[in-house]
Write a structure and sequence with these properties.
Layout (H helix, E strand, L loop, with lengths): L7 E4 L7 E2 L7 E4 L4 E3 L4 E11 L4 E6 L2 H7 L1 E3 L4 E3 L6 E8 L5 E3 L4 E9 L28
Antiparallel strand pairs: 1-5, 2-3, 3-11, 4-10, 5-9, 6-8, 6-11, 7-9
Function: This enzyme is involved in nucleotide metabolism: it produces dUMP, the immediate precursor of thymidine nucleotides and it decreases the intracellular concentration of dUTP so that uracil cannot be incorporated into DNA.
EC number: 3.6.1.23
Pathway: Pyrimidine metabolism; dUMP biosynthesis; dUMP from dCTP (dUTP route): step 2/2
Length: 146
């Protein structure tokens, strides 16, 4: 069974709360609260009318909806977008239109998913040397293609 946290939500008038589409859904669908046209090859920022109070130690991740990406080439540009627990402004979604046609988002349309996740903060420790590995400093593509 999934762990549950409580997230306080304030909404603009008429905004539908995010919801899980099925019992097994990892993300809640979030909806636009305004009409926006995103030109082919362009990007836009879409308001949701949602304001969150995320518990400390958690974040919200904004992720694309697969149907928009496959059918229209519209996706969340900085996926996943992170909403920090101390942010209290409106949740806005940066969408990019990689499709060949302009795409109109209507108010109330599902535009992204939101997932709440625990956060681990790191403490950095400076060091003169790092431990060795088989890979070493091999970067992009260094482990092969297959």
């Amino acid at each position: 069974m999934a762990e549950h946290i409580t997230v306080k939500v304030k909404t603009a008038e008429g905004v539908t709360l995010p919801a899980y589409a099925t019992e097994g859904s990892a993300g809640m669908d979030i909806r636009a609260c305004e009409r926006v046209v995103i030109r082919a090859g362009a990007r836009g920022c879409v308001g949701t009318g949602l304001y969150l109070e995320i518990p400390r130690g958690y974040e919200a991740q904004v992720r694309p909806r697969s149907g928009l990406a496959l059918k229209h080439g519209v996706t969340v540009l900085n996926a996943p977008g992170t909403i920090d627990s101390d942010y209290r402004g409106e949740v806005r979604v940066i969408l990019a239109n990689f499709g060949e046609n302009d795409f109109t988002i209507e108010s109330g349309e599902r535009i992204a998913q939101i997932i709440f996740a625990a956060v681990t903060q790191a403490r950095l420790e400076t060091s003169v040397e790092l431990g060795g590995t088989e890979r070493g400093a091999g970067g992009f593509g260094s482990t092969g293609r297959k």
